[in-house]
Amino acid sequence: MDTMRERFAAVTSRLLDEDPRLAVVLADIGVDGFRRAAERHPNRVVNVGIREQLLIGVGGGLALTGMRPVLHTFASFLVERPFEQVKLDFGHQGVGGVLVSAGGSYDHPAAGFTHMAPGDVALLDTLDGWTVQVPGHPDEAEVLLRHACAAGDDKVYVRLSTQANARPRPVTGSGFLPVRHGRPGAPAVVAVGPLLDSVLTATEGLDVTVLYAATVRPFDGATLRAAVEGADAAEVVLVEPYLAGTSTASVAEALVDVPHRVLGLGTARAETRRYGTVEEHLVDHGLDPRSLRERITAFVGRADRSGSA
Amino acid sequence: MTITTTPRPFPPAPGGGPGYADLPALMSLMTGDEKHDVAATSVLDALWVLYDRVLRISPDTVDAPDRDRFLLSKGHGPMAYYAVLAAKGFVPVEWLSGFGSHDSPLGHHPDRTLVPGVEIGSGSLGHGLPLAVGTVLGLRARGVADARVWVLTGDAESDEGSNHEAIEFAGARGLDRLHVLVVDNSSATHTTPGGLAARFEVAGWSTETVDGRDHEALYAAYTRPHPGRPRAVVARVEPKPGARPASARPASAHRGA
Description:
The complex is a heterodimer of chains A (309) and B (257). Chain A is α/β, with parallel strands linked by helices and 309 residues long. Helices cover 38% and strands 21% of the residues of chain A. Chain A has twelve helices and twelve strands. Chain A has a seven-stranded mixed sheet, with helices on both faces. In chain A, strands 7-9-8-11-12 form a five-stranded mixed sheet, sandwiched between helices. In chain A, helix 1 (4-18) runs parallel beside helix 7 (138-149) and helix 3 packs parallel to helix 5. With 257 residues, chain B is α/β, with parallel strands linked by helices. Chain B has helices at residues 23-31, 44-54, 79-87, 128-141, 161-173, 195-201, 215-223; strands at 69-72, 149-154, 178-184, 206-211, 231-236. Chain B has a five-stranded parallel sheet, sandwiched between helices. The radius of gyration of chain B is 17 Å and the shape is globular. The chains are: A alpha/beta (309), B alpha/beta (257). At the A-B interface, helix 3 and helix 5 of A face helix 4 and helix 5 of B.
């Protein structure tokens, strides 16, 4: 199976043929995937070199002329390094674009913390109006990328990963998808993108509702509310492939008038200062199926005891 | 690629409108200073010559795809900019007296979504030039052949690393629709002698340094041909009070294309 990044290059290259409004801007990362597209569309595939502030500024300038810019590099260099450009050159100018990242939180552990961006979604949460897509499979990445490119002048962040679920889900570009149904009032576990398979394994046999979130912003509060309806005190577990607790504020907003408890699972704030593999880092962060089951059952178990007291 | 450097006729502001001599009065509507000294505003002359004689934009063409673009990157102290926009009919003169108030569209840094004719919201330094590079690339991709893009920066703003990224890229790509007007009032810290124009020259730009109060010199510099290269015009003006005078620094070479 191809990777999400390979799919990104293939799909976006085809979209360049179809949509004259589309332009791709790169900063020396991912250039090979667009080599043929650059030959066909030399004015709409631009590599600015290792200049990430310029990458974002050029995207804003393209959007000011009515183009739909697609900007790509590793998440650290796309969102964190030029963050003020993301804030001002899109949001403040009142224009949109598509940011497509790779690398995420632990995709290249051997590269170390310089190539990890566990805080990217939390950072974007400080800005208004960004749609955030976290596909869990290359097929989903294709669907979500097509949505992003066609989304008018919206501001869209697509977070690609090397980690993927075994099979794709029918994502639509918005909202959460219930994939396992607990009894009414059962705890809800929100599994984001490539962590779905681990969550399904971890919650096997537990009475929980599992919601799959490939679109995390806007946060689908309506589906979450419906999932926990009937509980005396709603219980929500978030399992996110980035900074733990990133979406707890969204849960609090969705359940503002409902008594609730929330457990936010994700990557740790502290640097691990370890290299190795993706699997080893998932264990470090407690995001492997065994750790997830322990943490989820401990949270739900406490609720059971307090409920029976 | 050839460039049309002689300004084409473009619809003037309706009714002619105020002229250069009226700008101090327009600025006094914002500052409350009836004796406002033109010399205190570093960008006034450079802006006036650009809007009066070079840019192909008017209140009727603020949304025209083939208009020239002017991006004020140095968004600080925009009174001269607003005065010029009012003189040219982009904004009503009545707006000026509300400058900076809650109900006014005219803030201490301009907002493109509030002011007709303003191409970018600015205030944070180092954003205008990268946005201008993207604008040039976007116009090319859209097949708009004639529109030119101007961006105004300050000499201190040129220290921002984002500008260095843009200067190098634009030079290497030969973006000859791109024009930078650097108003140099000696406000930069840690300057290199003769540095401003040299930063552009070394990246392959066409450059010229002129007296920022000399309208004919500015016009000549603005309109000199520069085939295949982006163009930087450094307009020197008197330094801000307390700054090192421009005359104390080695002169930059005057160069054409």
